[in-house]
Amino acid sequence: VLTDPVIPCGQILAEHLSVPSVFFLRVMPCGLEFEATHCPSPPSYVPRIFTNLTDHMNFFQRVKNLIFDISNYFLCDFVFQPYAKLASEFLQRDVTVTDLLRQASIWLMRLDFVLDYPRPLMPNIIVIGGVNCAHKK
After folding, report:
1. Of residues 68 and 82, which shows the higher confidence score?
2. What's phi and psi for 93, nearest 5 deg?
3. Which of 12, 38, 114, 125 matches a 20 to 30 Å C-alpha distance to 32?
């Protein structure tokens, strides 16, 4: 199943049918893609999205990055809770969205390290390119 993990209904279906899933995405809110794939992403070194921080942070910027990361965790838990409930009811077992995302076979990510900071990626994450720009006449 080729699906977008931001709305995990496709992954719920793939899990129910026991078929492999392929995710195609640019970025996921709250960094769930790195948590689900076990990519190292410590908040003291990797700047979070919307913080306008660089990879060279002083102590207070690292604290700001950590606080932003903690608030994102609770926000994502609130946003994805209906999908976790739907998956638990449909699959007849307790499941979280992160557990669902861990079942993906391949992650096709549109990362561009010109815009994003380089970070380690797991073997099942394939970088397929970044921003696509077309010249207009």
Report:
1. 82
2. -160, 160
3. 114
Position 85 pLDDT exceeds 90: yes
Angle formed by the axes of helices 59-91 and 9-17, nearest 10°: 50
User: Are the beta carbons of 117 and 27 closer than 8 angstroms?
Assistant: no
CA distances from 48 to 86, 87, 134 (A): 29, 28, 28
Cα–Cα–Cα angle for 80, 86, 88, nearest 5°?
100
Phi and psi angles of residue 119, each rounded to the nearest 5 degrees, phi first: -150, 160
- d(CA 48, CA 72) in angstroms, rounded, equals 10
Q: Please report the pLDDT score of residue 119 as a whole number.
A: 75
> What's the one-letter identity of residue 74?
F
**What is the CA 111 to chain-centroid distance, rounded?**
12
What number of helices (H) and strands (E) belong to the chain?
4, 4
Determine the average pLDDT of the residues in 33-62.
82
Residue with tokens 């979070």: 48
Q: pTM of the predicted model, to two decimals? A: 0.78
Name the residue among 89, 101, 104 with its Cα closest to residue 19. Answer: 104
User: For residues 55 and 45, is the Cβ–Cβ distance under 8 A?
Assistant: yes
